[in-house]
UniProtKB/TrEMBL annotation:
<feature type="binding site">
    <location>
        <begin position="81"/>
        <end position="83"/>
    </location>
    <ligand>
        <name>L-histidine</name>
    </ligand>
</feature>
<keyword id="KW-0067">ATP-binding</keyword>
<feature type="binding site">
    <location>
        <position position="132"/>
    </location>
    <ligand>
        <name>L-histidine</name>
    </ligand>
</feature>
<comment type="similarity">
    <text>Belongs to the class-II aminoacyl-tRNA synthetase family.</text>
</comment>
<dbReference type="InterPro" id="IPR036621">
    <property type="entry name" value="Anticodon-bd_dom_sf"/>
</dbReference>
<protein>
    <recommendedName>
        <fullName>Histidine--tRNA ligase</fullName>
        <ecNumber>6.1.1.21</ecNumber>
    </recommendedName>
</protein>
<dbReference type="Pfam" id="PF13393">
    <property type="entry name" value="tRNA-synt_His"/>
</dbReference>
<keyword id="KW-0547">Nucleotide-binding</keyword>
<dbReference type="InterPro" id="IPR006195">
    <property type="entry name" value="aa-tRNA-synth_II"/>
</dbReference>
<keyword id="KW-0030">Aminoacyl-tRNA synthetase</keyword>
<keyword id="KW-0648">Protein biosynthesis</keyword>
<feature type="binding site">
    <location>
        <begin position="263"/>
        <end position="264"/>
    </location>
    <ligand>
        <name>L-histidine</name>
    </ligand>
</feature>
<dbReference type="InterPro" id="IPR033656">
    <property type="entry name" value="HisRS_anticodon"/>
</dbReference>
<dbReference type="InterPro" id="IPR004154">
    <property type="entry name" value="Anticodon-bd"/>
</dbReference>
<dbReference type="InterPro" id="IPR015807">
    <property type="entry name" value="His-tRNA-ligase"/>
</dbReference>
<dbReference type="InterPro" id="IPR041715">
    <property type="entry name" value="HisRS-like_core"/>
</dbReference>
<keyword id="KW-0436">Ligase</keyword>
Length: 429
């Protein structure tokens, strides 16, 4: 039998993982500036966590969830997105308490699972980086979250970005708009796709996001939600727009944009890129919005929230064209000549590592020529060579691989302070 990874998954090999680490480390550094802290939730949750929050008519619930019954007959789901699990953890751990500073700012990183047709940048096991902030209904936080998302993408070197913005309004706005859509779409019912026919009475807003060309033609002249906003919802959206203008963040209003999950309200947004990886076509890399009411759905008190999610695989497709500084050069390679130097070589690399240097040695009992070849391949900055005579005299040969110059040093100096020794060597050159 030939064993292969499951369809829609990928092996992240050592030569690729450097980019993954770069993305994660860059995100962590930025989130730290904004005072977001990491939360880690289980990869699987109770089915109801997602069926209740994502919406019974959403594609995730009806078509894409990996769900099963475990040995205790519990209905379990591999998480298809990050927000609902974070909200569940927020409620279960009572982070809404009065003693907790608001907003509660969190971020997450990890794998998600959706059963869908695998394609470039869209796998069945995929990875997201996301943020969630709870406890503040101020539109200023909406703008801060969007500004952070834009800054994150720009920090990866992305220059051609487009921020698409819309609002889903409050409950009253949405109810009025929902009825207006039903009234408009009902005469076209027989012309709608099968999915949209089902959504017409359950969640007509999702028809606006349909990829079916016939549906798109029908909704082109549909009512716009901006005409159905309550005074409060209109003010919230206007403040968001004003603050984006004041920060100099360009955006476009897309009144047909909705989110694939039913829990969103008020501000929603997508950040798109037209990178070469997408054939120059604007493609969403990051998306999010406000979800007041979601905490209550999972048993918590009335608590507003807002966040975004970023697809790591899709981002990496863009970064494939970027000249990233991901060099992983080696500080020191220890060349041991003869079996008698084995223990000392191990002591040297361990000492160097404890002093903060990356260090490697030979494990195959190769001749010096082969070891120096490996040192060059690994871009070692220095080599330390010891043979039996050096072992007896307590010395070693320190070579600067860039300058191709070499001096004899004592082992005691290496063990005591290699940084000082290396700096002296560099200064000498």
């Amino acid at each position: 039998m030939r064993y292969q990874r499951p369809k829609g998954t990928a092996d992240i090999m050592p030569d690729q993982s450097a980019k993954w680490q770069y993305v994660e480390q860059t995100a962590r550094a930025l989130f730290r500036k904004y005072r977001y802290q990491e939360v880690r939730t289980p990869i699987f949750e109770s089915f109801e966590v997602f069926s209740r929050t994502s919406g019974e008519t959403s594609d995730i619930v009806t078509k894409e969830m990996y769900d099963f019954y475990d040995k205790g007959d519990r209905h379990i789901t591999l998480r298809p997105e990050g927000t609902a699990g974070v909200v569940r953890a927020f409620v279960e751990n009572k982070l809404y308490g009065p003693e907790v500073t608001k907003p509660v700012k969190t971020y997450y990183m990890g794998p998600m699972f959706r059963y869908e047709r695998p394609q470039s940048g869209r796998l069945r096991e995929f990875h997201q980086i996301g943020v969630e902030a709870f406890g503040v209904d101020n539109p200023t936080l909406d703008v801060e979250v969007m500004a952070m998302a834009v800054e994150l993408l720009e920090s990866f070197g992305l220059t051609s970005l487009k921020l698409a913005l819309n609002t889903l309004g409050d409950a009253d706005s949405r109810a009025a708009y929902r009825q207006a859509l039903i009234d408009y779409l009902t005469p076209f019912k027989d012309q709608l796709s099968d999915d949209s026919k089902e959504r017409l009475t359950k969640n007509p807003l999702r028809i606006l996001d349909s990829k079916d060309e016939g549906d798109q033609a029908i909704v082109a002249n549909a009512p716009k939600i901006l005409d159905y906003l309550t005074a409060e919802a209109k003010e919230h959206f206007q403040v968001v727009r004003d603050l984006l203008d004041q920060l100099g963040i360009n955006y476009e209003i897309d009144t047909n944009m909705v989110r694939g999950l039913d829990y969103y309200n008020h501000t929603i947004f997508e950040i798109m890129s037209d990178a070469k990886a997408f054939g120059g076509k604007w493609t969403t890399v990051c998306a999010g919005g406000r979800y007041n009411g979601l905490v209550e759905q999972l048993g918590g008190p009335e608590t507003p929230g807002i966040g975004f999610g970023l697809g790591v695989e899709r981002l990496l497709l863009i970064l494939a064209d970027q000249d990233l500084d991901l060099e992983d050069n080696l500080d020191v390679y220890v060349v041991g000549i003869g079996q008698a130097t084995n223990a000392e070589s191990l002591k040297l690399v361990q000492s160097l590592r404890k002093q903060g240097f990356s260090a490697e040695r030979d494990y195959l009992n190769r001749k010096p020529k082969g070891q120096f070849k490996t040192a060059s391949k690994l871009n070692a900055r220095f080599t330390i060579t010891i043979g039996e005579s050096e072992l007896e005299s307590g010395t070693a040969n320190l070579k600067d691989m860039q300058a191709q110059s070499e001096i004899k040093v004592s082992l005691a100096e290496i063990y005591a302070d290699f940084a000082k020794l290396a700096q002296a060597k560099v200064s000498e050159e």
